[in-house]
Write a structure and sequence with these properties.
The structure holds two protein chains of two kinds.
Chain A (H helix, E strand, L loop, with lengths): L1 E4 L4 H15 L3 E4 L5 H10 L6 H13 L5 E3 L2 E4 L8 H4 L1 H9 L4 E2 L2 E3 L3 H12 L6 H14 L13 E6 L2 H4 L8 H7 L2 E5 L19 H15 L5 E7 L3 H14 L4 E6 L5 H20 L9
Parallel strand pairs in A: 1-2, 1-3, 3-5, 4-6, 7-8, 7-9, 9-10
Chain B lengths: L2 E2 L6 H12 L3 E2 L6 H10 L6 H15 L4 E6 L9 H12 L4 E6 L1 H4 L1 H11 L7 H28 L8 H15 L3 H17 L10 E6 L1 H5 L7 H7 L3 E3 L4 H12 L6 H6 L11 H13 L4 E7 L3 H17 L3 E6 L5 H22 L1
Parallel strand pairs in B: 1-2, 1-3, 3-4, 5-6, 5-7, 7-8
The chains are: A alpha/beta, B alpha/beta.
The structure holds iron/sulfur cluster (2 copies).
The site of one iron/sulfur cluster has 13 residues of chain B, from helix 15.
Chain lengths: 301, 362
């Protein structure tokens, strides 16, 4: 039996951990390749028009895997934090896939993982039908846990200009959708931080209501922390059109940071690379000019 | 203190009864219009969903008329509605820093006590006794149920009426008179009288009108501006429509979910497709689709705003229901740029299709 793992959405971030987990319990996996033109087109063709780009791309990956493996893993990720949610589209992903692609052989474990116990339970439910021995599962689970943070080692060389690259992990890690933005920034001599390779603090006390979206909370906290501690010179927010969560995060941050350099890049399947390049270049120029100007005033007072 | 609140269908009538019953100052925002939407778009982020923009428009128009306290509902579902209040608050404060807010959350989330606590903030200015306050609240609940029932029946029986336009006229006058009436009791009386009148309107049981179920995102299908008056248009064409998601339904559902009772048939029907709540009202949309089919409806119109996350999931599922049950479904996606002409053409074409099918069947 081969289980296909679509290389999209949060699977991108946890790909290695997932793969090794299955290996440890003796199941062969097949990961779809990095997003490419063919996969993107498959996704756009088969998904509901109104969906956001990452969800469309996910559809493309599933369609690609369709005849290449026996089952396809389409996790239904409900919660990664207690009392928080991720996105309605993640919760309804298996249904979207099932009915839009008319595909029956999907495995759709419900993942509620806000602590060790719940994560373990979710994974156990997933492998239960396979009759795996308890010890084997325990071992695979431990390995899975220690692998979860592997992706953190994004190297970044230290340059004078530091930019925080915000956005959902599946936009940041998918070079095809984000048009190689990290590489491009590096070529401009900018060092890039992302949510995953910095530590940040909780600033949500500034909001009247605790956010219940994990993505929103992380993005907000990360941006405010790094600005407050003076670690960065600018923020670039990569977002996809029609993302309901970003429509809030982008503005919540904007309203809080005053005139701090902030570039929002929204992408969908029609976005041209040239336009993005021009805007990136202009933004980096702005940062360089600001760095030269010695007034390094704090924008947050 | 002068309280205002966003429009949601007929709630303004119930709010009027509540605040007049309590003796608290209030401002009803002008009925949502193109202008409301323009104001809303001006102050809202581009990408946010349509209901957000219209609500901002409502607040601003009310504040211009003297309101200083804004009542916001933040239901804590995994959808944007729950995140609204934060950003809305920031936007309004940037316009006028003295605005106050009362956030009403779902009792299921914050507990019944805290819920009542916040509700009582609304009545802070009222000098009435506790018993009178509770009476005002119960009158408001009665109002919303009554007016929603009147509207529901008008919209359904419009297809069966003997003299064209009677139900439409009644629906129009009842709302006008209710809002003109002075005091909570009088308002309620207007509603009761019209409910009696409604029962006397002559109906032709041999008619066989087109029957359409309206499903989709709750705000959009309740708010006539968002759905471009779809129900009025269908009513004028002699089409019977039904929609379950009314403010009164929402009240009932919210309270019951606070008591952890899952009462509705809707959830039973939707189970096969969507077993759990994914936020918004996607489950209700699917459940309603199937229920409407079982009740012999001829077609369904799903309406949701651009970028609406849960309804995109429903839209992916609906084609399967269409195939399996053989009920035509039209999905309409709206935002501030939706052109009227194209919208109405699609509705008309859809009605033609259903009419054709109906003739074939007989
Ligand atoms: S969080 Fe945004 S980008 Fe991600 S799936 Fe949801 S709507 Fe799409
Ligand atoms: S259900 Fe749709 S319209 Fe309502 S808040 Fe969520 S995304 Fe917006």
């Amino acid at each position: 039996m081969i289980i296909g793992i679509p290389n999209a959405l949060l699977n991108i971030k946890y790909r290695d951990a997932i793969q090794e987990f299955f290996q440890n319990i003796g199941v062969t996996t097949f990961v779809s390749p990095k997003t490419n033109k063919e996969i993107l087109d498959l996704g756009v063709l088969n998904c509901v028009d109104e969906a956001c780009l990452p969800v469309k791309v996910f559809h493309g990956h599933v369609e690609y895997l369709r005849d290449r493996c026996d089952f396809i893993l389409v996790p239904r990720i409900m919660k990664l934090q207690k009392n928080e949610f991720i996105c309605p589209k993640f919760c309804g992903l298996p249904e979207m896939i099932k009915y839009s692609l008319d595909i029956k052989n999907i495995i759709a474990p419900t993942i509620v993982a806000y602590d060790n116990k719940t994560l373990k339970k979710s994974l156990y439910e997933l492998v239960k039908p396979l009759n795996i021995k308890k010890e084997k599962f325990e071992k695979a689970f431990e390995a899975f846990k220690s692998n979860l943070y592997k992706y953190r080692n994004l190297d970044y060389k230290n340059s004078d200009l530091k930019v925080l690259l915000l956005g959902h992990p599946y936009l940041i890690y998918d070079d095809f959708i984000n048009m190689n933005i990290i590489k491009k920034l590096k070529a401009f001599g900018v060092s890039v931080y992302t949510e995953d390779n910095v530590d940040f603090y909780d600033y949500t006390y500034r909001l009247i209501k605790k956010p219940f979206w994990t993505f929103l909370r992380n993005t907000y906290n990360c941006a405010i922390s790094l600005i407050e501690t003076g670690k960065i010179d600018g923020i670039i927010y990569v977002s996809s059109f029609a993302c309901g969560i970003d429509s809030f995060s982008i503005d919540l941050i904007k309203k809080d940071i005053g005139s701090f350099p902030y570039l929002v890049l929204k992408i969908d399947e029609h976005t041209g690379e040239a336009g993005i390049d021009t805007r990136l270049e202009a933004f980096v120029d702005l940062l360089k000019r600001r760095a030269k100007n010695e007034y390094n005033f704090s924008t947050l007072g | 203190m002068n309280i205002t609140f966003p429009h949601l269908g007929n709630t303004y009538i119930a709010a009027k009864v509540l605040f007049e019953g309590l003796g608290v100052d209030y401002t009803i925002p002008p009925l949502s219009s193109k202008k409301t939407l323009e104001i809303g778009c001006l102050y809202s982020p581009d990408d946010v969903c349509l209901p957000f923009k219209i609500m901002i428009g409502n607040y601003v128009e009310s504040i211009q008329r003297g309101a200083d306290t804004v009542l916001i509902t933040g239901s804590c579902g995994p959808c944007r509605f729950g995140e609204y209040c934060e950003l809305q608050k920031k936007i309004l404060l940037s316009l006028d820093k003295d605005i106050k807010f009362i956030v009403i959350d779902e009792p299921a989330k914050i507990g019944i006590r805290e819920f009542l606590n916040r509700l009582s903030m609304v009545a802070k200015d009222s000098k009435l006794s506790k018993a009178k306050k509770i009476k005002a609240l119960s009158m408001a609940v009665k109002t919303i149920n009554l007016i929603d029932n009147i509207e529901k029946e008008c919209r359904f029986f419009a297809g069966f009426e003997k003299n064209k336009g009677e139900f439409a006229r009644l629906l129009k006058t009842v709302k006008l008179e209710a809002i003109e009436a002075k005091g909570a009791e009088k308002t309620l009386k207007v509603l009761e009288e019209h409910y009696e009148k409604l029962k006397k309107i002559e109906i032709d049981n041999f008619k066989n009108p087109i029957k359409i179920g309206i499903i989709g995102e709750i705000y959009t299908i309740i708010d006539p501006l968002s759905n471009m008056y779809i129900e009025d248009i269908l009513m004028n064409l002699g089409v019977s429509t039904r929609r379950t998601l009314y403010p009164s339904w929402w009240v009932k559902n919210t309270v019951l979910s606070g008591l952890k009772i899952n009462f509705s048939k809707i959830y039973k029907e939707s189970k096969e497709y969507l077993g759990l709540c994914i936020g918004g009202h996607a489950r209700e949309c699917i459940g309603e689709a199937i229920l409407n089919y079982k009740h012999g409806f001829d077609g369904l119109i799903q309406i949701f705003p651009v970028g609406c996350m849960p309804e995109i999931v429903s839209k992916a599922i609906l084609p399967d229901i269409e195939r399996r049950y053989g009920i035509p479904i039209l999905s309409l996606v709206v935002d501030e740029m939706t052109g009227e002409a194209g919208y109405y053409t699609r509705v008309e074409a859809f009605l033609d299709l259903i009419e054709g099918r109906k003739k074939l069947c007989i």
